[in-house]
Amino acid sequence: MSDLSLTINGIEVAAREGMTILEAAQSSGIYVPTLCHCPGLTPEGACRICLVKIEKKKKLHPACRTPVEAGMVVITDDAEIEQVRRVTLELILSDHDFNCLLCRKSGTCRLQDLVNRIGFDEHRLDRLDRVAKDLPVDTSNPFFDFNPNKCVQCGICIRTCREIVGVDAIDMAYRGYEIKVSTFGDKPFKESVCVSCGECVERCPVAALIPKKIEYPTREVKTICAYCGVGCGLRLGVRGNTIIGARGDRDNPVNKGELCVRGRFGYKFIHSPDRLTSPIVRAYDPLERQAHGIDETGESSKPVTSPLVKQEGDFVEVTWEQAIKYVASSLDHFKGDQFAAMSSAKCTNEENYLFQKFVRTVMGTNNIDHCARL
Amino acid sequence: MPEDRSKKILSVFEEKKGALIPMLQRVQEEFGYLPEEALAQIAWFLKIPLSQVFSVATFYAHFYLTRRGDHLVRICQGTACHVRGARDILETAQHLLGIKTGQTTEDYKYSLERVACVGSCAMAPVIMIDNAVHPKVSPLDLKFKLMDELIAEHGDKPNKGK
Amino acid sequence: MTAAKKKDAFRGIRSFEDLKRLKESVLAQEKADSKTLIVCCGTGCLASGGDKVRQSFIDEVRRQGPEENIVVRKTGCRGFCERGPIVVVSPENILYQGVSKEDTPEIVSETILKGELVDRLIFEDETTGDKCVHEADIPFYKKQARRVLRNCGHIDPTSIEAYIGVGGYGALAIALSKMNPEEVIACVKESGLRGRGGAGFPTGRKWESSRNAPGEEKYIIANGDEGDPGAFMDRSIMEGDPHSVLEGMIIAGYAVGAQKGFIYVRAEYPLAVRHLHTAIAQASDLGLLGQNIMGSGFDFEIEIVRGAGAFVCGESTALVLSIEGKRGFPKPLPRPNTSIVGLWDMPTVLNNVETFACVPAIISNGAEWFASMGTEKSKGTKVLALTGNVKNTGLVEVPMGTTLREIIFDIGGGIRGNKEFKAVQTGGPSGGCIPEDLLDLPVDYESLARVGSIMGSGGMLVMGENTCMVNMARYFLDFAQNESCGQCTLCKLGTRQMYHILSDITSGKGRPDDVEVLLELAAAVRAGSICGLGQTVPNPVISTIRYFREEYEEHIHEHRCRALVCRSLVSYRIKEHRCKACMLCLKGCPVGAIIGAKWQVHEIDQTKCIKCGACVEVCPPRFDAVECLTGKANEG
User: Could you report the per-residue pLDDT of C375-426, keeping only the tens digit for each?
Assistant: First the structure.
């Protein structure tokens, strides 16, 4: 990675080899509009919004995929480029269902932003045929909707699914004006191999792939996802005392902002009335109690109130001390290979380590396994 | 069993690079269109994503995902045919078969299609019925000759409507 | 291939001497045949009944004469499709045109057996009234120089022996025995051969860059995905002389260092696919394809890839992706050249089939021979598909630099029905329309580009006064929007919007500044699209506006289509005082839009009329009772 310099719009700009014109421009604070570009994905160069002029080259080049060269002279903005960008934008608008006021994406929509920055010719836009496509909206997925009428065919979702998630649930289907992001057989998302991770939804620049519900948080809380041991960084969006959304923490070295379906969409359990907030033990009959050696008159602050048979057994809230005591007394009856233990992926590495240590040294067996192997 | 049929077709392509399109062509030759199960089989065979097979199959104009008519009436809309009145031929054909371009008659006897050029431009305007090129066709020919020949040859009146 | 078959293949040509011997034996056999009936079975003539004529000749010869000395030979396209089926009696070279099955007994009994001419089947020059007995006398052929088409219409395309008999695979033998790969490239470079697919890139330079590019394997691809509507040059070559394409490819493989070739053929060309398959099988059988070709140690094999119906796959990067089994999305800039990073990321020479067909002749006759024809920058000849409203449609081959006027009027015989010439469209959907005052323009890459058109693959559509230029532009944009791959915004949506505006204009809904909007859209699509398709499809719009702006204005402001083509702007009426109530139009109307009865003057139901003009066609000229109105007359 050697340093080189090039000229963008008459300004000398330092860049590293391997950078694209777009990256070089951005690192020097020069704005180049983009639509189908998404950092971290292969640049496609299909939307034609980031076209720039390069001295000594006949044709316009997309800044997002053209590597810098030493001494390159680039113009990102002049009347001709502006005209091509405006026409491109007007064409996209002519094909876009833009009821912005009622759109869930309003305010964070990249297309809106481009319209503000590039502008358009009202008269020409008015001349274009604006018969909106009336394709059905796919609401089959429980977490997000796909509205092809809002899609700008930037392909970011497809590249995300291929390059980041590796599921390849979607691809471009059909061609020309009919082109469409589609699952196999053009079926609803729910019937496809989609894993609902929502990475595409996160990256969609417009409202084509959009969560079922969008609420803007009043603050964000940085935390670690509790679902498994990977330890993805989460930023939970909070309103009042309620979690209303989650997104990946880009600063977290573990997931770099990416999440799976659980981390991204599975936060509703937090406020579920069914959620456990303390340990529970299934109520048991006195005989069993004796067998476990629990002294009924012991110190437990909240003893089981009445003897119950197991078949009818309800779960009863106990304290952590009681719970641990109960487990310990149960374990006491077993030793060596009579015993086997299964650990969980929801635990951290450290917890899993401790657990196997416990099984081997205290319980005296190597019968230990982990659910991730199943 | 259709699955066995396609399995046999696919086996020819073992270890062949770039086999997807020839495979789709062969499967379509066998079934007349591309059944979804066959597409899935191809994806499995080539170890490529399902969505990619669908993407390729829908890109190329020659692939059909639904059943076609037994006879394909193709009206050339090439440049040379166009200046010699191909549009009239197309409209007449639509009228006579009672279907629009791209459709199939209800009885699956005929499918009507427009084709960009069949390369018989010197004989424009031309139409293709199955694999036979008919040169210098006029709407009158279509009404009085070709349709009758078609019916005589295949024994069925096109089932109008849809 | 089974072991037995493999062994069998080596009975073929194992050395350069073997080839020579085979050629001599073919020629000796031909000498022994006293007469040959050459029946054109190109697609054009087949459609007019060529195969029935051939079959009937075989029966007639068997019935009437000593069949052992009379050969009935089917050939590829002879070019004069307009007058097909064409039959040539050799060695006298008598050309009969428009031959039908019924004419065959007479041809056999008169011409073959008695040496008499069948007068009514001889071509008559409309203007001079001269009878032209031989092909060379016919004006259609006079100004042509058939070099690429040297064998088309002369040899049986399904016989490798026939090809070898006319010197086929001789160039390959020269290349393999007397030249090293660098010399082959130098020869092609020197000849000045440029890509015949349209862009006109120097072929030798392309080969050289592939040769010098690093790569474990290299590939040769012949592009036979002739997608331009109105073009059938490649089709005719693949059908009529498939071996010349194979030979050109093998030579290219030798020059570049490739061992594998692909021919990408449109699936709409079943006969071409069949003939190429036959040719490859024959060449492999004789050892002209496969391992150690003619004992030279050079290996080469060829595979046919059938296209699946996408015009955009004529573009080099899209074609390569299509062979790899992907969607034909052209790769955006910046991208390495296909000649350096092509198929499976290996150096790949991609040339049009016509380009490959030129190669054997260049190697055999030398670079100077090829360069002796043509202009300074465009050497050799070009095969053109002459179509549209011209009298003699067909396949023509002329030296580069021949003027449009010569092609259209001398070869093509002028406009049909003696109408006025209006424009000629070259280069298909990517080309432009050229008006009358530029008719003396020489046909070469640079001159055509200068007037806003392109050479393209060689389609040449002639339009007379009964062609509407706005409708033409709309037609091409319709094609473009149907064939746009949909990858980039400008082409996908720009073509659609231009088509929409043009549709409005042709249906009387044009707005005053539509022409300006069209030009703005066209400029943006041209500048911003990813590939050659998008960058050139605005050409028909730009060039028709440039040369025929007044027609646009008439459509927009006066709702008038002077060519009487745009249906919303015309109506057909029956002149009451002239209608003889003969029922002809009533019966002829394909949609039943004419009301009337015997003894009752007919009337056209305007709501049903599809404006096909069939009524004008059937109304006897002496009645002249149907008229077509446009503009004020139509609306007033």
Answer: 999 999 999 999 888 888 888 999 999 999 999 999 999 998 888 999 999 9
Complete domains list, chain A, with CATH: 3-77 (3.10.20.740), 90-211 (3.30.70.20), 219-271 (2.20.25.90), 276-331 (no CATH), 334-374 (no CATH)
Residues of chain B with CATH 3.40.30.10: 71-154
Q: Which residue has the higher pLDDT, A35 or A329?
A: A35
Chain B CB contacts of C328 under 8 Å are 59-60
Domains, chain C: 33-142 (3.40.30.10), 172-371 (3.40.50.11540), 381-464 (3.10.20.600), 469-558 (1.20.1440.230), 571-635 (3.30.70.20)
Rg (CA), chain C: 27
The pLDDT tens digits of the residues spanning B17-57 come to 788 999 999 999 888 899 999 999 999 999 999 999 999 99
Percent of chain C with pLDDT over 70: 98
| Residues in chain C, overall count | 636
Query: The whole model's pTM is what?
Result: 0.87
Q: Which tokens is C97 given? A: 């045109």
Answer yes or no: do A183 and B51 touch at CB < 8 A.
Answer: yes
Q: pLDDT exceeding 90 applies to what percent of chain B?
A: 25
A49, A66, A111, A127, best to mutate vs chain C, most C CBs in 10 Å: A127
Query: Residue B139 in contact with residue B88, Cβ under 8 Å?
Result: yes
State the pLDDT at residue A289: 54
Q: Which of B36, B40, B51 sits opposite A171 (nearest CB)?
A: B51
Please spell the DSSP secondary structure of C141-178, one letter per residue.
Answer: HHT---STTSSTTTS-TT-HHHHHHTTTTHHHHHHHHH
Residue B2 pLDDT class (50, 70, 90 cuts): low
- In CATH terms, B2-59 corresponds, of 3.30.390, 2.60.40, 1.10.10, 1.20.120, to 1.10.10
CA C374: distance to chain centroid?
20
CA angle C401, C404, C405 (to 5 degrees): 120
Q: Does domain B71-154 have CATH number 3.40.30.10?
A: yes
Chain A residues with CB under 8 Å of B39 CB are 184-185
Q: Is pLDDT of C543 > 50?
A: yes
Indicate if the pLDDT at residue A237 is higher than 50: yes
Contact residues, chain C, for B138 at CB < 8 Å? 614, 617
- Compute the average pLDDT of residues C40-48: 84
Report CB contact under 8 Å: B54, A171.
yes
* B156–chain A nearest CA distance, Å: 33
Interface predicted TM-score of the whole assembly (ipTM), two decimals: 0.86
Provide the 10 A C-beta neighbour count for residue C329: 24
- For an interface test with B, give the residue of C269, C461, C465, C477 to mutate (most B CBs within 10 A): C461
Torsion (CA) C16, C22, C25, C31 in degrees, nearest 10: -100
Residues in B touching C476 (Cβ below 8 Å): 79
Q: When comparing pLDDT for A293 and A102, which is higher?
A: A102
In chain B, which segments carry CATH 1.10.10? 2-59
Residue C174 CB coordination number (10 Å): 17
Cβ-Cβ contacts under 8 Å, A172 against chain B: 55
Q: What angle do CA C413, C419, C420 make, to 5 degrees?
A: 90
Determine the Cα–Cα distance for residues C363 and C398; give it in Å rounded to an integer.
20
Res A98: pLDDT: 79
- Per the DSSP assignment, residues forming a β-bridge with C222 are C263, C351
Q: Once rounded to an integer, what is the mean pLDDT over residues A203-215?
A: 93
Which of B20, B21, B116 lies at the smallest CB-CB distance from C229?
B116
What one-character-per-residue DSSP string does A90-103 give? HHHHHTS---GGG-
